[in-house]
Amino acid sequence: MSLFDRFFRSKPASDKVQVLPKEEFAKEIRTGKVQLIDVRTAREFNAGHIKGAKNLDFFSPNQFRKGMEILNKNKPVYLYCQSGNRSKKAASRLLTMGFEKIVDLAGGYNAWSR
Question: Which residues are catalytic?
């Protein structure tokens, strides 16, 4: 593994976290029976979001924590942000909260909206 890969490659923190490209992510959320969370700010969310997503701003710790506490920890949580950085951090936080399966959108909403 190169030094570049070690520092910049997106690698899940756990086997409970899966990072999926847009096509696979879309296929899995299409059922409408998923916990789909947009961790961007309200302003970013209002500018455009994935249909069916709930906005829980990662930068508002109380709102984020309270919103996550009402989710089912045994069901997969699908996350995205603008580029993938915040959702990666959010996934780590969800692991510490006891969530069993977290799915992150590779490239975030930027990739989704292309």
Answer: 81
